[in-house]
TrEMBL record:
Species annotation: Salinicoccus hispanicus
Enzyme class: transferase
SMART domains: HATPase_c (SM00387)
Matches recorded under Pfam families: HATPase_c, HisKA_3
Cofactor entry: [4Fe-4S] cluster
GO CC terms in record: cytoplasm; membrane
Catalytic activity: ATP + protein L-histidine = ADP + protein N-phospho-L-histidine
Subcellular location: Cytoplasm
This protein's name: Sensor histidine kinase
Binding site residues for [4Fe-4S] cluster: 55, 58, 70, 73
Length: 343
């Protein structure tokens, strides 16, 4: 059996590979390219002189830290494995590719540049990301439903049963003074129950957020936090515009609400600083927010105490309106949640 020699195999791979294979010299001029590269970077779209240079097709190189400046281009490296690059195709589209760059002929300074389409991988990653996101949203929703169900059962249901029993006993009370005492106790129980239901309602969706805006809603919530947890909130609001898009107001409210709940549960503090600041110039208009405590703190990279869905939820809420949220913390020096949202 005659085995084909290595040269013929390499030639076959070069000509028939579905991978784009491009040889370039030290100046970035294209020396050779295979059929797949030629059909993708079609020379009829360009002048011959333009087509011959890889820079006229390349739209930017990206590494883990973001876009890489041209001064640090792959052309000036001996080898870079698995980086992302955007190339302009014959249709004029800018398409992402996974690239490898390696010097194969050091004497003549010839390098091989290989490209594989990234679009399908990105689509698959996006689908997987959406699945994970949906799962975590469902977990968060179920966790919140369990909490509300438990509050209703332990608080509202038990209180209603107590009032019901007291009301049933009233018909057996003949003494007017004793009857008045029981009526007063029943009234107190109903008042307590009304406050409890009102608190649950405020947690779910404060009416003041829709009626009066973010500032009034937060001030009301901070008073409730102080009553419930004994934590005072030092609130700074330097925003000229009083009302914003309802979705933006909701996101701001929920992020601040979650950050304060986390401080109340885990930070062991009696005071939290909250600030909202309007950042505005000719090009951008943002609301900058900061929630900071001087509590226990934690290592940001560690597995979070509890479900961890609070931090995840804040990030997802911010990104849903084009904003960002970050957490800075360390054991013994407190926690700072900060970010901005475009308005």
């Amino acid at each position: 059996m005659n085995e084909p020699n290595l040269t013929s195999l390499l030639e076959a791979m070069f000509h028939h590979s579905k991978e784009m294979i491009i040889f370039v010299n030290k100046s970035g001029e294209i020396v050779h390219m295979n059929a797949h590269a030629a059909s993708t970077l079609d020379e009829t779209d360009y002048d011959r002189s333009q087509f011959q240079h890889i820079c006229n097709h390349c739209q930017g190189m990206y590494m883990s830290g973001g876009r890489v400046a041209c001064s640090n281009c792959y052309l000036y490296q001996d080898e870079i494995v698995s980086f992302q690059v955007y190339m302009r195709t014959r249709e004029g589209e800018v398409v992402p590719f996974i690239a490898n760059f390696q010097r194969v002929d050091p004497e003549n300074e010839i390098s091989v540049f290989t490209l594989n389409p990234l679009a399908e991988q990105l689509k698959t990653q996006e689908i997987e990301h959406q699945k994970r996101l949906t799962q975590r949203i469902i977990q968060a929703q179920e966790g919140e439903r369990k909490r509300i169900s438990r509050d209703l059962h332990d608080g509202v249901t038990q209180e209603l049963l107590n009032v019901l029993l007291e009301m049933r006993l009233l018909k057996y009370v003949d003494d007017r003074e004793a009857l008045n005492d029981k009526m007063v106790k029943s009234e107190e129980s109903l008042s307590h129950l009304l406050d409890y239901v009102r608190n649950i309602s405020v947690e779910l969706r404060p009416a003041s957020l829709d009626d009066l805006g973010i500032e009034a809603a937060l001030k009301t919530h901070f008073k409730w936090i102080e009553r419930q947890y004994g934590i005072s909130v030092d609130f700074s609001f330097t925003v000229e515009q009083k009302r914003f898009n309802p979705e933006v107001e909701t996101v701001l409210y929920r992020i601040i609400q979650e950050a304060i709940f986390n401080a109340a549960k885990y930070a062991e503090v009696d005071c939290v600083d909250v600030s909202l600041e309007e950042m505005k110039n000719e090009e951008t208009h943002h609301i900058k927010f900061t929630i900071e405590d001087a509590g226990l703190g934690f290592h940001v990279g560690d597995t979070p105490v509890g479900t961890g869905l609070g931090l995840f939820g804040m990030s997802e809420r911010a990104s849903s309106v084009g904003g960002t949220v970050s957490v800075d913390s360390a054991p013994g020096r407190g926690t700072k949640v900060f970010g901005s949202i475009p308005v």
